[in-house]
Write a structure and sequence with these properties.
This protein folds into two domains: about 80 residues, Winged helix-like DNA-binding domain superfamily/Winged helix DNA-binding domain (Arc Repressor Mutant, subunit A); about 50 residues, Dna Ligase, domain 1 (2-Layer Sandwich). It has about 140 residues and is an alpha+beta fold. Helix 1 crosses helix 2, helix 2 crosses helix 4 and helix 3 packs across helix 4. The chain starts with 6 loop residues before the first helix and ends in a 5-residue tail after the last helix. The protein is built from six helices and seven strands. A hairpin with a 5-residue loop joins strand 3 and strand 4.
């Protein structure tokens, strides 16, 4: 469950002025568990928003990431992916099917401890933890 499912409130809580395009992108990310790329977001939204451009999607994502409203996930070497859930959590990428899944502190208990830890004069404000392997569905088809 995400912190807020209302895209307008989510945008405003991060100091972003809502526009139809921003609301559409934010709504898509808040309701997607697939960690889409910018192109996937564009392809999903463009049928219902014919005036939407790829440039607008890329600029909107850049703004959302800079404001902390979404996460830029770099688990896939080929594509930047985006996550509307900014709570502390790790990600898992399947080597076979490419699925990117969320792993929460109840699944990775030490995650919250890492985020709150202080290391000397360093104060950690964000942790990006990636696991790479085979998802449950692909394991039965892989000998590794």
């Amino acid at each position: 469950m995400l912190i807020t499912a209302n895209p307008i409130e989510h945008l405003q809580s991060h100091g972003i002025k809502p526009s139809p395009q921003r609301i559409a992108v934010m709504d898509y990310l808040l309701n997607s568990r697939m960690h889409p790329t910018a192109d996937e977001i564009y392809l999903a939204l463009s049928p219902s928003m014919p005036t939407l451009s790829k440039t607008t999607v890329y600029n909107t994502l850049k703004l959302l990431v800079e404001a902390g409203a979404v996460l830029n996930i770099s688990i896939d070497e080929k594509n930047a992916r985006y996550d509307g859930d900014t709570r502390p959590h790790a990600h898992f990428r399947c080597l076979k099917c490419g699925a990117v899944l969320d792993l929460y502190p109840e699944q990775v208990p030490y995650l919250e401890q890492i985020d709150r830890q202080q290391l000397g004069r360093l104060r950690i404000v964000q942790t990006r933890l990636y696991y790479i392997g085979y998802c449950e569905q692909c394991q039965e088809h892989t000998s590794n």
